[in-house]
Design brief:
By secondary structure, the protein is α+β, with helices and mostly antiparallel strands. Strands 1, 2, 3, 4, 5 and 6 form a six-stranded antiparallel β-sheet that branches. A three-stranded antiparallel β-sheet has the order 7-9-10, covered by helices on one side. A hairpin with a 5-residue loop joins strand 2 and strand 3. Helix 3 crosses helix 6. The longest helix is centred in the last third of the chain and has 28 residues. The relative contact order is 0.14. About 2% of the residues have low confidence.
Length: 357
């Protein structure tokens, strides 16, 4: 396999412009004014760290708490409409699933557009706030990980019949587009580049099989910062947030992303631990409610490895483009290097066997 090593900043087929182009941030005071004007909600805004948009926690006291999202000016309205329509579909199809509710503005609009003080036209959304602790700030037991898998399976079933004109968009974080990111290899630190190249080469070998896998609209980002939990609740998982990477992709991709995100944050490569020890708990819960073919189970470890490579490539690139936001961009990258090294150290046959033995 030949991998391009060109040093490029421009966007490839799977890289939307909002990942590489800066915009003028909206401050909390302006966010509060936007919320009051559009939704009649008066409250104090606190910024969340995000990848590309301006997102705030809006505390409206007796009215409750909300999430105000002010999209990057280059985000396409039809793709934001896809996200809103998907969340509305889930609200109707599976009202017991713990997902935010999207709210209309005072004129009944789902996606009102404002012109900010910087002169940018930006799409606004208001959603209910999911109370709890993001899973990346706490721990979970094997049984709780199984619960995460059960919710992922129920989400899959609830999305199975959903379609939208924008659901086939190319999302950079969809691992099916990994090979389109090979031009970003020059941003990977030299000492870690061989692990990433190995992941791309192995992914290229299974890509024809992936292209034949079953597909539907899926969440595609079941990472621990998007899962809100409450240890005191019997449900444990009290919120699934951020449908920004939802897309029509392979069922196996959605599962592999969830499993990859349960890999240990700290990993001693020397003791040869099995990275899938905790992820298998998620898979066990998932398989109680949704089936996977033998072929999908064989591919999932390769796709988890591919997702690690996607993260390495995109975050290394974007940290250089946006050095002022590099701490947030690279927050999960360091742990992933040890994971990529582990995959590099084992045979392709071993990878194939990780979930099927």
């Amino acid at each position: 396999m030949s991998l391009k090593m060109d040093h490029k900043h421009q966007c490839g087929p799977a890289r939307a412009a909002e990942l590489s182009e800066a915009c003028h941030p909206v401050d909390a005071t302006e966010a509060e004014a936007i919320a009051e004007r559009l939704y009649g909600t008066r409250g104090s805004a606190t910024r969340f760290e995000t990848e590309k948009d301006d997102t705030f926690l809006l505390d409206c006291a007796a009215q409750g708490k909300f999430v105000l999202k002010i999209a990057h000016p280059l985000e396409r309205v039809e793709e934001l409409d896809f996200q809103v329509a998907l969340m509305r579909h889930l609200e109707q199809r599976a009202p017991d699933l713990p997902i935010p509710r999207t709210l209309r503005d005072v004129d009944g609009a789902d996606l009102p557009i404002v012109t900010t003080s910087a002169g940018e036209r930006r799409v606004v959304r208001l959603m209910t706030f999911m109370v709890g602790t993001p899973l990346d700030r706490t721990s979970c037991t094997a049984l709780q990980r199984e619960r995460i898998g059960e919710i992922l399976a129920k989400l899959r079933h609830s999305m199975a019949d959903f379609s939208h004109p924008a659901d086939g968009r190319a999302v950079a974080w969809d691992v099916t587009h990994l090979l389109d990111l090979s031009d970003l290899l020059s941003f990977i630190p030299r000492g870690k580049r061989a692990w990433t190249v190995s992941a791309l080469e192995r992914f290229a070998e299974i890509k024809p099989e992936l292209d034949r896998c079953r597909r539907q609209v899926l969440h595609n980002d079941f990472n621990t910062s998007n899962l809100v939990v409450d240890h005191a609740s019997p449900r444990f998982l009290t919120g699934v947030i951020d449908f920004g990477d939802a897309v029509r992709t392979a069922i196996a991709v959605d599962v592999s992303t969830a499993l990859m995100n349960q890999m240990p944050k700290t990993f001693d490569h020397g003791n040869r631990r099995d990275l899938f020890e905790a992820p298998r708990d998620v898979l066990r819960g998932y398989l109680r409610h949704a089936e996977l073919t033998d072929e999908e189970l064989r591919l999932i470890p390769f796709l988890s490895m591919g997702r690690l490579a996607v993260r390495a490539l995109l975050t290394s690139w974007r940290a250089e483009v946006f050095p002022e936001n590099s701490r947030y961009i690279l927050r999960n990258t360091e742990a992933g290097w040890a994971h990529l090294e582990w995959f590099h150290s084992i045979s392709t046959a071993h990878i194939s066997d990780l979930l099927t033995r």
